[in-house]
Specification:
The structure is a single chain. The chain is an alpha/beta fold. The protein has a single domain, classed as Flavodoxin domain (Rossmann fold). Helices cover 36% and strands 19% of the residues. Bound molecules: flavin mononucleotide (FMN). Flavin mononucleotide binds next to α1.
Length: 205
């Protein structure tokens, strides 16, 4: 493993719970691959452009990769292609992804480039590599709630899994930090649970 790409989608940057846990994850990856370079992309402070009319026309037409309308998309896809492991650290926002992460997805999930359309459906065109999803939420969206709390709808995990699978990324590993808005004890329990999952997946050498 030579390159690790981390996307931070929280508006809270390095203070975010999702980002902080991803620091632990990246430390484990670097312990196993000492020479690996980390590329940090803070989507909140530097959001990808939203899809505009030029992009829309370019992907539906015959524009080649050098079309100016696709320049940023091409850059972000190349960055992803050149990475050996992808880490996405994101909060749940309104049951789904923050808008800045959706903006990144819209740039990199591109027909004829990162996926193809066949009679059997969409097929990924990128080679697979490990993807680590660190998901933070104020409440609970799995059945992990240690207290009486309504389980929320989860459009985050299935959505991220589906779009990543669509472009060929299937080796997904999910760490959920849930109940973070329920006080310090719940936050500590969420980190402990995620750390146990990390120890199981990437034990200390
Ligand atoms: C705009 C917004 C929407 C949110 N929507 C949800 C939600 O749907 N479900 C939930 O459990 N928490 C929700 N939260 C709470 C965050 O997921 C929670 O504070 C999380 O810890 C933030 O992660 P971070 O520390 O990595 O930024 C929302 C927070 C914000 C700011």
């Amino acid at each position: 493993m030579r390159t690790i790409l981390r996307l931070t989608a929280s508006p809270r940057g390095s203070q975010a719970n999702s980002h902080r846990f991803s620091d632990q994850l990246i430390a484990r990856l670097k312990a196993r691959h000492p020479g690996a370079e980390l590329i940090d992309r803070d989507l909140s402070s530097n959001p990808p452009p939203l899809i505009d009319a030029g992009f829309s026309a370019a992907i539906l037409g015959t524009a080649d990769r050098s079309s100016p309308a696709l320049r940023e998309s091409e850059r972000l896809i190349a960055e992803l292609e050149n990475t050996d492991a992808l880490v996405i650290a994101t909060p749940m926002h309104n049951f789904s992804t923050p808008a800045v992460l959706k903006a990144w997805i819209d740039q990199i999930v591109r027909i004829h480039r990162s996926f193809g359309s066949t009679p059997q459906g969409k097929v990924g065109l990128l080679s697979d590599r490990p993807v680590y999803l660190v998901l933070a939420s104020g409440g609970w969206f799995t059945d992990a709630a240690p207290i009486e709390a309504p389980r929320q709808p989860d459009f985050l995990t299935p959505y991220l899994s589906t779009v990543l699978n669509t472009i060929g990324l299937r080796d997904l590993h999910i760490f959920a930090l849930e109940g973070l808005a329920r006080g310090d004890a719940m936050r500590d329990a969420a980190f402990a649970r995620a750390e146990a999952a990390l120890n199981a997946l990437l034990p200390l050498p």
